[in-house]
Amino acid sequence: MGQKVSRNDFEWVYTEEPHASRRKIILEKYPQIKKLFGHDPNFKWIAGAMVLTQILALFIVKDLSWPWLLVLAYCFGGILNHSLMLAVHEISHNLAFGHSRPMHNRILGFICNLPIGLPMSISFKKYHLEHHRYQGDEVIDTDIPTLLEARLFDTTFGKFLWVCLQPFFYIFRPLVVNPKPPTRLEIINTIIQLTFNAAVVYFIGWKSMAYLLIGSILAMGLHPVAGHFISEHYMFAKGFETYSYYGPLNWITFNVGYHNEHHDFPAVPGSRLPEVKRIAKEFYETMPQHTSWTRVLYDFVMDPAVGPYARVKRRQRGLAS
């Protein structure tokens, strides 16, 4: 089973999350960053082109053998679908059309959701905004592994399995830790998605639908682009709970690697986050950062000091210690 992790509990802290206070300090020194706030007018065209590319790919993969379909799902379709998940992430912050046109953002979210295969754009927004506001909260922040996950996957092999199973933890963990009743928009999202899935199966075939679903699942697990799930908030350096990555995979992930910058300034679209770093470089260049998402996956599995326990947690307000 491999070496057991050296931690037996999460990193409990009793301070506020660091981003709101750092945002205030940075804006006092660099008020020009406010000019970067707002939506990215080019975003909708980039995201739309990615959706169209995946739909066209369905007509190619329908006649492929299963081995070649799996290769294409891992090396191409999964990457596009993961990028579309991160497009949904941008949309959850209303960065496609701005805060003044919320329904335009939601509709684009429905469209970007289509190739992913599972309805998630509205549910993601509901939980993700809480992750920003209550980072590390033991109940509200569902990005943090459960105690059961940390205890079950506490060896080298266990962590390898956990990485492979990440998509299922991301899907089901919020429903267990912090369940919420479905909203009207979530129901609409589900109806639209199931209608699209049925149309793909009816007009193109099951193999094309499998390509979409398999690609989404594979690219959320043991895959280089999925390294950002772990790189963002797992504690690789004591005392630091958010990490940035400035490598080339940002080009296909809407700069989600600029994660400290994103949490400090969620109103800045991904395309402008490098400018935040350039302006306030003394705040970001001195913090620990990752140079490779693939290396993050390797270190997470092999380093006994890192694992599901390596997360900063805070007691939920109002709960006894």
UniProtKB/TrEMBL annotation:
UniProt-listed GO biological process terms: ceramide biosynthetic process
Coiled-coil regions listed in the entry: none
InterPro entries cross-referenced by the UniProt entry: DES1/DES2, FA_desaturase_dom, Sphingolipid_d4-desaturase_N
Subcellular location(s) of the protein: Membrane
Source taxonomy: Eukaryota, Metazoa, Ecdysozoa, Arthropoda, Hexapoda
GO CC terms: membrane
Name of the protein: sphingolipid 4-desaturase
Pfam families, per database record: FA_desaturase, Lipid_DES
